[in-house]
């Protein structure tokens, strides 16, 4: 019976730090629910990024524009941390208020077993990093949020990922200035969202002494944002971590679209076709979510 993850939260945080410090780029697929988290773990990944946009879009059916708050984000991330052995870095948006709110936000996610938390410098309500119309808060206020986040954590290996959206607002130079200020406050990772080119990535990574994260956004048709770059090339540019927040959400929606198209097209047939190429088997789905463990408990505690 293996209902709990093999590693403790503290062990997962330490392992994640070691992975990030190792040569090459650490790959973090985006997870947003139980299915995606378990699939990423089954695929052999040791860490993942809890995508705030994915949680908002899939769980609540709303866009990533600040509608989903602290409690909803924490609930979704905590479930994934408890049901997998993944080291998860969660999306904490802006910290949901002042630096004091950030303190409670960090402690909530840390207590829930997460391995790290992203805090960004947008105004609230925020927007997805690849949307237009973003605004940033003053640098000193943003730096105080990062200071509060760093001082709030109890486990020094709990990662604080400082994100700046300044590239789209005031340009790359402002993003670098903000990143340096966040690093000075103790941020473990730095993330400038919506970098526009490989040159921008290299400049940003070369301007700071803290590991850099980039967002590889699949499925953006009008690519007026970060280009897709291979992990090998990202390593050459000085990037330490690549997150893929949209990959699995986009794949899930596409898969459901295709299944519904096939089903609608079969309404007039004598029998609805079974499509193993489109539909995971009942047995495989139950194995993914741990039915065998539950059966084992049923036998163990049978009256």
* Fraction of residues in helix: 40-55%
The termini sit apart by 18 Å
The level 1 CATH classification of the largest domain is: Alpha Beta
Mean pLDDT value: 93
Percentage of β-strand residues: 5-15%
Low-confidence stretches: none
Number of strands: 8
Q: What gross morphology would you assign?
A: globular
Order of helices and strands: HEHEHHEHEHEHHEHEHEHHH
Strand-pairing-aware structural class: alpha/beta
Sheet with the most strands?
8 strands, parallel, barrel
CATH fold annotation of the largest domain = TIM Barrel
What tags apply to this protein structure?
single chain; 303 residues; alpha/beta; TIM Barrel; 2 domains; eight-stranded parallel beta barrel; 13 helices
Note down, in words, how this protein is organized.
By secondary structure, the protein is of the alpha/beta class. It folds into two domains: 9-247, Alpha-Beta Barrel (TIM Barrel); 254-300, no CATH class. Helix content is 47%, strand content 13%. It has 13 helices and eight strands. Strands 1-2-3-4-5-6-7-8 form an eight-stranded parallel barrel, surrounded by nine helices. The two termini are 18 Å apart. The relative contact order is 0.13. The model has no long low-confidence stretch (mean pLDDT 93).
């Amino acid at each position: 019976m293996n209902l709990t993850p093999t590693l403790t939260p503290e062990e997962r945080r330490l392992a994640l730090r070691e992975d990030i410090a190792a040569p090459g780029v650490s790959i973090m697929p985006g997870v947003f629910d139980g299915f995606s988290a378990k699939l990423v773990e089954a695929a052999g990944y040791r860490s993942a990024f809890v995508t705030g946009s994915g949680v908002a879009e899939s769980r609540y059916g709303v866009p990533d524009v600040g509608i989903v708050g602290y409690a909803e984000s924490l609930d979704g991330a905590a479930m994934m941390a408890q049901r997998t052995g993944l080291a998860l870095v969660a999306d904490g948006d802006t910290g949901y208020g002042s630096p004091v709110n950030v303190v409670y936000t960090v402690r909530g996610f840390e207590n829930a077993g997460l391995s790290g938390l992203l805090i960004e410098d947008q105004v609230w309500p925020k927007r997805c990093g690849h949307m237009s119309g973003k605004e940033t808060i003053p640098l000193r206020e943003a730096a105080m949020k990062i200071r509060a986040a760093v001082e709030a954590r109890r486990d020094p290996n709990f990662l604080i990922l400082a994100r700046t959206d300044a590239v789209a607002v005031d340009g790359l130079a402002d993003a670098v200035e903000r990143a340096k200020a966040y690093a000075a406050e103790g941020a473990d990772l730095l993330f400038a969202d919506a970098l526009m080119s490989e040159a921008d990535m290299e400049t940003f990574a070369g301007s700071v002494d803290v590991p850099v994260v980039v967002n590889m956004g699949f499925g953006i048709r009008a690519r007026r944002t970060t280009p897709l770059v291979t992990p090998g090339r990202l390593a050459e540019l000085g990037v330490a971590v690549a997150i893929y927040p949209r990959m699995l959400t986009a794949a899930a929606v596409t898969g459901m679209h295709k299944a519904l198209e096939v089903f609608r097209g079969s309404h007039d047939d004598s029998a609805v076709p079974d499509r193993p190429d489109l539909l995971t088997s009942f047995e495989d789905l139950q194995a993914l979510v741990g039915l065998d463990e539950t059966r084992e408990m049923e036998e163990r505690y049978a009256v």
